[in-house]
Amino acid sequence: MAILIWVVVYHQLEPLSKWVVTALALEPGSRLAEAIAFFAYDTPKVLMLLTFVVFAMGVVRSFFSAERTRSMLAGRREGLGNAAAAALGIVTPFCSCSAVPLFVGFVSAGVPLGVTFSFLIAAPMVNEVALGLLFVLLGWKVALTYLVFGLGVAVVAGWIIGRLHLEGWLEEWVRDVRAATATVPREGLTATARMGAGLQAVRDIVGRVWGWVIAGIAVGAFIHGYVPDGLLASVMGKEAWWSVPAAVLIGVPMYSNAAGIIPIVEALIDKGAALGTVLAFMMSVIALSLPEMVILRKVLTLRLIAVFVGVVGAGVLAVGFLFNFLFA
Fold first, then answer.
1. At a CB cut-off of 8 Å and minimum separation 6, what does 231 contact?
2. Which of 11, 85, 221, 234 ranks highest by number of CB atoms within 10 Å?
3. Element (H or E) spanning 280, and its range?
4. Are residues 42 and 109 in the same domain?
5. pLDDT tens digits along 97-147
6. How many CB atoms lie within 10 A of CB 203?
7. 117 plus 251 within the same structural domain
């Protein structure tokens, strides 16, 4: 019944946005009318999609725990271990705010440093919210491209950091941590309990990010209504070689999450920005944000943070340039 109601409401969103413009007596086709229509349509749409995706993945996540994830990665060699860690990062319930306890737990359990970094890069950047919203809003090609390139960055960056053998650049207290006995508390959950986990994920995640989502949609509505079509094409288009590094530099100081940044991505692409440049911007906001660096400073020395930012940043730049070249 809930799914049926969701489908019916979702299909009424476009008529609702048109009704809002009419009710406000706005001139059809004006900049303000276009911006209001975008906001009135995208706000409930993105929040409904976010709720659906988070609930579904909350059920999936009930099969994982920090301890189980740690035990699955412990003892993995680099290469295959990096790929496994990046893949686990997609479906496990962790973000940059979980970096400190995860990092300590993984290192203490014998997970190689490079493998740990592959997981910590993929978990916030290539998460189910980003993929689900990209799939619905921008199509399967964009979602698949983001998945492939995002995993590529996580795997390669983690492998490079592992090859550099920088364990000595961890904070001393982290190196002194002893491995603890792992437990897996989520075995044997009933179907009802897993559904409850999905609802709890909606309360926790949607309840935490809805403000960022609305803020992102508001920015996207402004871009959609007021930014001239040719402006972004010239600034963030394929012909502007400097647009990719500029997009990364702009993205790093920003603080947002996948749900909040995707409406902005949608509006940028609609206005003619190059897809590779926009994906590089999105990756830098999610994976290289300053708040994440502050959190990681508790377990990493400044030298290791610099290496992390440099390697991941180079990967994000490569994604932007390569994708713009392939689809020129």
1. 271
2. 85
3. helix 275-287
4. no
5. 555 556 666 776 667 888 888 888 887 778 777 787 788 777 888 888 888
6. 11
7. yes
198 within a domain of the structure (yes/no): yes
pLDDT given for residue 181 in this prediction: 36
Q: What is the DSSP letter of 273?
A: -
Contact yes or no for 46/88 (Cβ under 8 A) = no
Comparing 202 with 65, the larger pLDDT belongs to: 202
- Helix axis angle for 31-61 and 258-270, nearest 10°, is 140
Q: What pLDDT, in 10s, does the model give residues 146-170? A: 888 888 888 998 899 888 888 888 8
At 61, is the pLDDT very low, low, confident or very high (cuts 50, 70, 90)? low
Our count of domains for the chain comes to 2
| Residue 52 · residue 28 · CB < 8 Å | no
Residues 109 and 172 in one domain: yes
DSSP per-residue codes, 108-168: HTT--HHHHHHHHHHHHHS-HHHHHHHHHHH-HHHHHHHHHHHHHHHHHHHHHHHHTT-GG
**Strands, E assignment, 68-115:** none
- Domain for residue 244, yes or no? yes
- For residues 225 and 113, give the distance between their C-alpha atoms in angstroms, rounded to a whole number: 46
Residue 87 has pLDDT above 80, yes or no: yes
Claim to verify: residue 28 and residue 141 sit in the same structural domain: no
| Domain membership of residue 53 as a residue range | 1-61+191-209
The per-residue pLDDT for 138 is: 76
User: Does residue 214 fall inside a structural domain?
Assistant: no
Same domain membership, residue 259 and residue 123: yes
Q: Is residue 216 part of a domain?
A: no
